[in-house]
Amino acid sequence: CLTSGMLTPNGKEYAQKIPREELTHLILKLLQAWKEPLSHFNQHHQELPDDSLSKAKQISNMVHELKTGVEKVTEKMQSMGIISNSLNGMASSEATGLSISNEANTMSDSDFIHCFRRDSNKVQSYLKILKCRIMPENSC
Fold it and tell me: What's the CA gap between 87 and 108, in Å, rounded?
């Protein structure tokens, strides 16, 4: 997988032990890591049926919107003093430390989709953990 070199916690119990800043940074890194591969996938799979191509573009847009939303939440958390300002600029592709373009080119479509689903599930879990830490009144 594209992000297999990225250190991520194995299991919910380990993810719950990660400080908020690190968890937020990890979410942003995972989302940033998929930006280029999803764009590349869309550009090089123009032969897909229109509905599949439309779905692929929709997923790419959703990842971009989610990353933008997490960045806005991060800024709000920083302004409220919930997390430090140490995350500024850390979500850039240089900060991910990943060389993903060549690996994305050599993956089969099924491996690509499997890895994307795996990382999407991680992001979803990490966001839930972060939400519970920030707003414990949600009975998490």
Answer: 34
pLDDT tens string, the chain, 140 residues long: the values are 889 889 899 888 899 999 989 999 999 999 999 999 998 888 888 888 888 888 888 999 999 999 999 999 899 888 888 888 765 555 444 444 445 555 666 778 889 999 999 999 999 999 999 988 888 776 67
CATH number at residue 67: 1.20.1250.10
The residue range of the domain holding 76 is 20-91+101-132
The predicted model scores a pTM of 0.79
